Amino acid sequence: MEEQGDCILTFSSYEEYVKSKITPADLFYIEDEELVFDIFSLGLQSRGVLSCEDFNSTYQKKKKESLKKAEERKADVEQYDINSLTDHTMNFFYAINCHLHFCEENKICSILFIRYVNKNQSEISSYIDVNSEKVRKKINQKKYIYASKNDLAYFNWHNNYSCTNNSENFEMVVNKQVGLLFKYTRGGKYFILNPVRRETKIRLSDNISEGRASVGLSPGEGEKMISLCDGVERVELRDENYLQCILYALRV
């Protein structure tokens, strides 16, 4: 009965269902079509034919399940509101999923900052690209996210080790004037995560690469001024797994 339930909604009536079960061989041996229909309507388990009562109960059950799934799919689409990106009452997993959702729709780019004490009692902090396979995998498994030396920026405050890495979505830049810069690769926007005054600008020549002033610039390009984006939104989440947990979003 359960195997048939998956396709039972394709029939508009019990009569249509029964007729689909009657074969030419049945009509050959029992020439009366109405009699064949009456026999089948009693339910033939050997042929996998449901009785009228079983058909109706299974039909109603599957219809309710189908409507429930449709509502769940609708809820999945509507459950995230872009205006709730800075809602500090969101729990960790909902917040990450919300940011991931709008990253995948190319409406924002997002960075997660975490600070915590690891099992060696070292304080660790990290900046992580939210729109990454690392984050998706952890969130799908309902697991918390912790730092890696492959993150955008990694700091171990116990031994003063730090490193930075580019990702698919961001380039990391160290600037003499403002410190750590993030460049969104798709739009070429530069921004920092601390609040900035409107129209704050930096010089390309102040960017540092591998401990040296940026190289490979055309004559005069080093004096080029770049405006920093000032629309970074910030929400701090409260979670016992972290000393500090902040999500940053820039609408693109």
Helices and strands in order, then pairings?
Layout: H1 2-5, H2 14-21, H3 24-29, H4 33-41, H5 52-78, H6 92-104, E1 108-117, E2 123-129, H7 133-140, E3 153-156, E4 161-164, E5 170-175, E6 179-184, E7 189-191, E8 201-203, E9 207-209, E10 212-213, E11 225-227, E12 233-236, E13 244-251
Structural features, described:
Pfam families: DUF4464 (PF14713). It comes from Plasmodium cynomolgi (strain B). InterPro entries: DUF4464. Keywords: Cytoplasm, Nucleus. This protein has 252 residues and is α+β, with helices and mostly antiparallel strands. It folds into two domains: 14-76; 82-211 and 222-251, no CATH class. It contains seven helices and 13 strands. The chain has helices spanning 2-5, 14-21, 24-29, 33-41, 52-78, 92-104, 133-140, and strands spanning 108-117, 123-129, 153-156, 161-164, 170-175, 179-184, 189-191, 201-203, 207-209, 212-213, 225-227, 233-236, 244-251. Strands 4-3-2-1-13-12 form a six-stranded antiparallel sheet, covered by helices on one side. Strand 5 and strand 6 form a beta hairpin. The protein is elongated and about 95 Å long. Residues 210-217 have low confidence and may be disordered.
User: How do the SSEs run, as a string of H and E?
Assistant: HHHHHHEEHEEEEEEEEEEE
Strand content: 25-35%
Please, how many domains?
2
Give average pLDDT, whole number.
83
Strand order of the largest sheet: 4-3-2-1-13-12
Relative helix content: 25-40%
Q: Describe the largest sheet.
A: 6 strands, antiparallel
* Number of DSSP E strands: 13
- Give me the number of helical elements: 7
Keywords: Cytoplasm, Nucleus
Organism: Plasmodium cynomolgi (strain B)
Function: May be involved in spermatogenesis.
InterPro entries: DUF4464
